[in-house]
Amino acid sequence: MTWQYQDLIDEFYLDVEKYKNEYYSHDEAINITFNEFYSENIADEMERALIYILYTELLLQNPRIYNKTKQVLLHELDSIDLDRIRSQIVDGQLNQEQLEEISIRKEEVIKKLKLMPIDPCNQARWYYAEIRNAISNFYLELVAKNMDNDEIIDQVLSRYKMGCDRTPGVKITVYITLAEMLLKNNHTISKKIIDEIKGFKMDSINDELSLDELADLSRAMKNVLE
Q1: What separation in angstroms does the CA of 144 have from each of 103, 148, 149, 155, 184?
Q2: What is the pLDDT of residue 56?
Q3: CA–CA gap between residue 18 and residue 188 (Å, rounded)
Q4: Which Pfam family, any one of them, does this sequence belong to (predicted)?
Q5: Are the CB atoms for 122 and 70 separated by under 8 Å?
Q6: CB of 202 closer than 8 Å to CB of 214
Q7: Is the pTM here over 0.90, yes or no?
């Protein structure tokens, strides 16, 4: 299949949103989408360039990046051959304005990527603030539907089960955030949630969270258990 410039962009974004709607994290969604679009055998330079640019633009929305990933992306972005892409104008895959846009976007993502903080963890996952916000917002949606306490707990844990199963840091963050929201709304925290929080070992998180995130999580755990 030969992609047209805007068609590829639109389809890439649509796939990312599709996976987010299936309750994958932003990071998981863009990685799955990248793996579906990218192949080492891609001969189309415009296609290769756009896939890397789109992926990096979306990756920049994360708080940090694994160092090896950062170096690979910088190499691939720097190797984009604009002269080869220019030759594809003749075939109608893009126009001169779109070529200039590729050049500008390429330089912009390289500049921003170089400044992105390093993440010692290489797993695609929910980041701390992202999952905290997602749980809080979903909880409020359920409250607005007049669901009872047990229904709310079941709905939250069911929706984010995949993330909980993926990493211990996400799991404890889901349980802590849910417990906090229950307390704020004068709801009862179930024994299951308390047992999960009490039984959690902070050293199981490894490199998932930053020092600031670990401190915030510890504070939240203490407040909930008190």
Answers
A1: 47, 11, 12, 14, 15
A2: 98
A3: 34
A4: Imm3
A5: no
A6: yes
A7: yes
pLDDT, tens only, 3-58: 999 999 999 999 999 999 999 999 999 999 999 999 999 999 999 999 999 999 99
Which ranges of 38-167 would DSSP assign to H, the alpha helix? 45-59, 67-78, 82-87, 96-115, 128-144, 149-159, 161-166
The b/e string for 156-186 (b: 16+ C-beta within 10 A; e otherwise) is: bbeebeebbebbbbbbbbbbbbbbbbbeeee
Q: Which of 126, 119, 108 is nearest to 170 (CA)?
A: 126
| Dihedrals phi, psi of 42, to nearest 5 degrees | -60, 125
Over residues 145-184, the pLDDT tens digits come to 999 999 999 999 999 999 999 999 999 999 999 999 999 9
Domain boundaries, the chain: 5-119, 128-225
Two tokens, residue 159: 């929706």
**Longest pairwise C-alpha distance within the chain:** 69
CA distance 132 to 177: 6
Q: Give me 69's structure tokens.
A: 């990933």
Over its C-alpha atoms, the chain yields an Rg (Å, rounded) of: 21
